[in-house]
Design a protein that fits this description.
By secondary structure, the protein is α+β, with helices and mostly antiparallel strands. It has helices at about 15-20, 40-50, 90-100, 115-120, 200-210, 255-265, 280-290, 305-310, 315-320, 365-380, and strands spanning about 25-35, 55-60, 70-75, 80-85, 100-110, 125-135, 140-145, 155-160, 170, 185-195, 215-220, 230-235, 245-250, 270-275, 325-330, 330-340, 350-355.
Length: about 375
């Protein structure tokens, strides 16, 4: 495999890649992310308290839904749906038994859900949900869906003819408890972990089935430490609004974070959700106050950081105190930090990212980041 294929080598690199993406769907953005969780009511309280999400919509027994309960939370352009099965819903129960809490649905906003389903299934996607119309007095939503890696699915959502709260079957979720937001704005990217030798399989899927292009490729020389390694391909749709890095394990002396994830999630799945902020220092400071735990970055990382990334606007002391990392590419720089897993299983976590021109993914931080992850693995006894 070649070294880093960085699309920003020329001023026209990104335009060229986006032009190569066959955006026949097209995708307008991320509509929502649905997580299957063991207790949606308690999980919703956590996401509100710790991550600053707000109450938005609800569906359950009180709305006529007999087999599950769903709470919808919102923060700026981010919508999370937390769903728990009620007795008799074997499908979600089995998913939770196998995977624990985690992402089931990555829903994509489209102008035509019927066409999106037809275009992807005729290119080889396995159907998850044939186009269906859901309606109430506020209009209609059309949804369809396909399978992707592991038990993860993409649902295409067409909502141009709907004026209600979220979608039919949901009611407005009124709550007297709504902590202030922490400044999260939108989903920057979502990372999928797949099994050995499956990265190219799924990169090909996103290219041929969904019209994505390969934005960046990292091999095991780019993402490795003394002990572990992985490989990754970042796939993007034509307008650049949807980016899916796909990770697979690589040979190393010890068990990599990807292998640990696959073991505890019992297969491929969404490893982390990267969410953007306009002020990462304020966001991470507030999240830390609310009890969110972040990966520890050794203080020595900051000794030479300005030599590597050049002048930045932020106070280096504040970045060091919070453990926020910095990296630069030809377009600018970015700041990023990673939470520890948000569940008992070491699986799903969040990345907080602030882009100041940079369009890359923090290659210069990989060494420090993976050493921090390995330290956590060692504490868990899974390295």
């Amino acid at each position: 495999m070649s070294n880093l294929k960085n699309i920003q080598d020329t001023n026209f690199g990104l335009e060229k890649i986006f032009a190569e993406a066959k955006d026949f769907l097209p995708l307008l953005g991320t509509d929502y992310v649905e997580l299957y969780v063991g207790n949606a009511k308690q999980a919703a309280h956590f996401y509100k308290t710790a991550l600053g999400f707000q109450s938005y919509a609800y569906a359950g027994l009180e709305t006529g839904l007999k087999d599950r309960v769903s709470y919808v939370l919102i923060q700026d352009k981010i919508r999370l749906v937390l769903t728990t099965p009620l007795p008799g819903n074997k499908f979600i129960e089995e998913h939770l038994t196998k995977h624990g809490d985690g992402v089931k649905v990555i829903a994509l906003w489209v102008d035509d859900a019927r066409s999106a389903w037809e275009e992807t299934t005729k290119r080889g996607a396995k159907s998850y949900m044939e186009p269906r119309v859901e309606s109430d007095e506020h209009g209609e939503v059309v949804r369809s869906g396909i399978h992707t890696y592991g038990d993860t699915v993409h649902v295409f959502v067409e909502r141009k003819n709907y004026k209600g709260v979220f979608m039919p079957g949901f009611v407005k979720w009124e709550s007297s408890y709504n902590p202030t937001t922490v400044g999260l704005r939108y989903i920057d990217h979502m990372v999928g972990n797949v099994g050995w030798n499956e990265m190219n399989v799924w990169a090909k899927f996103y290219n041929e089935v969904m019209g994505f292009a390969n934005l960046i490729t990292f091999d095991d020389k780019d993402i490795s430490t003394e002990y572990t390694a992985l490989m990754s391909k970042v796939m993007t749709n034509g307008n650049g609004r949807i980016k899916f890095p796909i990770n697979e394990p690589a040979e190393g002396k010890k068990k990599s974070q990807i292998e640990e994830y696959l073991d505890f999630y019992s297969g491929p799945g969404c490893q982390h959700i990267a969410v953007a902020t306009n002020n990462i220092i304020e966001t991470v400071s507030e999240m830390t106050k609310r009890g969110v735990e972040f990966l520890y970055v050794p203080g020595t990382y900051y000794d030479t950081i300005l030599d590597r990334v050049g002048e930045i606007d932020e106070d280096l002391i504040a970045l060091k105190e919070l453990g926020i990392m910095v990296d630069r590419d030809d377009e600018g720089y970015l700041l990023q930090i990673f939470t520890k897993p948000l569940e008992d299983r070491p699986t799903l976590f969040f990345e907080i990212i602030q882009r100041k021109g940079a369009t890359s993914f923090g290659k210069g931080n990989f060494q420090a980041l993976f050493e921090s992850i390995e330290a956590e693995q060692e504490r868990r006894g899974t390295l």
